[in-house]
TrEMBL record:
Subcellular location per the Swiss-Prot or TrEMBL entry: Secreted
Domain C1q span(s) in chain numbering: 51-187
Main localization, broad class: secreted
Species the sequence originates in: Poecilia latipinna
GO cellular component: glutamatergic synapse; synaptic cleft
InterPro entries the record matches: C1q_dom, Cerebellin_Synaptic_Org, Tumour_necrosis_fac-like_dom
GO biological process, one term: maintenance of synapse structure
Record flagged with keyword Cell membrane: no
Name recorded for this polypeptide: Si:dkeyp-74b6.2
Length: 187
């Protein structure tokens, strides 16, 4: 990796550590580590631009209304049947569970729709079996309502995140529900 002090000179920029001079001609300069480690430390960028290891994002939707049997499982995990984006393939479409590929700060958002249902629903973002962010939808005088929330979560490599129906039921449809997340930055 390029290390050293940069000095502005008449011909652009040069390094003081016996490397070749770098000339800036009105362009943006990106410095990449040609041999990135698995877990960067110190002043490293934290990801390899060349290999794209820092790219983690997913977005899944419910494209069809659910049937009561789909939410009759004991876990009450909310399932999504269409993947819009799954960069890095860390969201499992079979289980609707996201597994963190590395330690970092992750952003999650969700929007779970209930239709023609007078019961209050509570939806939680669950991290390793524990609810960390919740949202409620409970107005009995509307035909469509959504439990929506978003937040940042610190995750370790291998941590699992998913949505869980904590209260109520989704019978009646949740066709336009979404669940999305991405790595904000690695640690």
């Amino acid at each position: 990796m390029l290390m050293g002090n940069l000095v502005w000179g008449p011909s652009g920029v040069s390094c003081q550590n016996d490397t070749e001079p770098i000339v800036l001609e009105g362009k943006c300069l990106v410095v990449c580590d040609s041999t990135p480690s698995a877990e960067p430390s110190g002043n490293a960028l934290g990801m390899s631009v060349r290999s794209g290891t820092g790219r983690v994002a997913f977005s899944a939707i419910r494209n069809t209304n659910h049937e009561p049997s789909e939410m009759s499982n004991r876990t009450m995990t909310i399932y999504f049947d269409q993947i819009l984006v799954n960069v890095g393939s860390h969201f499992d479409p079979a289980t609707s569970i996201f597994v963190a590929p590395r330690k970092g700060v992750y952003s999650f958002s969700f929007h779970v729709v209930k239709v023609y249902n007078r019961q209050t629903i509570q939806v939680s973002l669950v991290l390793n079996g524990w609810p960390v962010i919740s949202a409620f939808a409970g107005d009995q005088d509307v035909t469509r309502e959504a439990a929506t929330n978003a937040g940042l979560v610190l995750m370790e490599r291998g941590d699992k995140a998913y949505l869980k129906l904590e209260r109520g039921n989704l019978m009646g449809g949740w066709k336009y529900s979404t669940f999305s997340g991405f790595l904000v930055f690695p640690l």
